[in-house]
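Hey, can you fold this one?
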Amino acid sequence: MNSSLRLMIVGISGAITVALGAMGAHWLKNQLPGGLITADQINGFDTAVKYQMYHTLAMLLTLLFAFNVPHKFLKYAYNSFFIGIILFSGSLYFLCTRNLYHADFLKFLGPVTPLGGLFFIAGWIFIAFSAIKKPSK
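Sure. Predicted structure:
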């Protein structure tokens, strides 16, 4: 994947994060009185938004560092963060809003969330490795 496409993914992820954050802060909170969503589900949705933004910024930083010091571990970190966003935040978005669209079957996504967390951890470890190992040429 080239740098332009990676940067486009960062921009799209950032925009999606802001939009979902606004949706959670306004529209979802208005659903509380109707009982279609709980305070715990709103908190879970908020966690998904925060982690998506943190790791979108981390993806951007890995790109910026990779321009100056190309390193395979920085690419691995970027990819790990991207997969982590999809698995961790994506599963939480669906799990926390499933009652709104009567999709209780989405409970199966529960075990996917921690897998996304493992990808986040792997991304940070790859960044640490990039400081230890020699850069790629």
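The chain has a mean pLDDT of 93. Let me know if you want another pass with a different chain boundary.
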